[in-house]
Amino acid sequence: MSTYTLSTAHIPRREYQIPHQNMLRPLVWLKRGFDDMLAMPGVSLAYGAAVAAVAFLLVFLTVGGSQFFLVPFLFGGFLSIAPIVSVGLMAMAKRREEERHDQTVLKVLSVNAPSLSLLGLVLLFVFLNWIMLSNLMFGGFFHEVIPTYGSVRPLPVMFGESWPFALVYGGIALVLALLLFRMVALSLPMLVDQKVDVFNAIFASWRAVGENWPSMLVWAVLLFMLTSIGIGLWFVGLVVVVPLLGYATWHAYRDTLVPQSTAGADTDTSL
């Protein structure tokens, strides 16, 4: 177990313990997330349905706008912005855990809204740039800047048609995904839980994920697989997958970054 100390001007600075997690600990997070779903079934499924509807609408508008060649790349883009759309679920999990039924989810999120908004903008920027980068790589390897509808095919098919494309595109996607995961995996729930700035939250997430890479690698694979299943079922699977992973992410944070008491501190950073 190690300790991470916030880099702030507040004295004493807030400290977080980083316990070492078992490799199969993510299964416990999923179990706790499922328990949250059972405790709040209506609002959880409604939240998931809303996210699924937005994802489907995004694809529908892309195809309707004759930008169908971007559809295969929307999957990676969705993974980059999926964490920010789950902050409401993290706030609900926090309310349930702390039994703070006197506060609404919006009130919980509003306390640290500037930091959450900033990180949301960063993820949106990543999403838009990933779509543009994907299109450029596709055009470069297949010489089809604006392909016909019939030439659009799933990513695995394109990988099979061009191994150089598979290596370059897959390699860049993997590196960026791992970097983004290490930065965001625990920073978002931390911003929901604590009044802390974006940079400290990202540094804390980077440190905690790095010190628990076996369990976090399993967690990343589970996130990818379950999200893929949700999207593969014509987005209907997201109705269940989104709340399940949103709640489980909260429990991953609670297990991996444990805030310590700040006796004598002038400023309490807890929400």
Tell me the total number of β-strands. Answer: 3
Can you tell me the residue ranges where pLDDT is under 50 for at least 5 consecutive residues?
264-268
Alpha plus pi helix count: 12
Overall, the morphology is globular
Instruction: Quote the average pLDDT.
Output: 85
Series of H and E elements = EEHHHHHHHHHHHHE
| Distance between the amino and carboxyl termini | 25 Å
How many distinct domains? 1
Radius of gyration: 20 Å
Would you write up a description of this structure?
The protein has one domain. The model is unreliable at 264-268 (pLDDT under 50). It is mainly α. It has 12 helices and 3 strands. The protein has a 3-stranded antiparallel β-sheet. It has helices at residues 25-39, 41-64, 71-85, 87-98, 105-110, 113-142, 155-161, 163-184, 187-193, 198-211, 213-232, 238-256; strands at residues 2-5, 15-18, 258-259. The chain starts with a strand and ends in a 12-residue tail after the last strand.
Keywords, separated by commas or semicolons:
4% strand, mainly alpha, 271 residues, globular
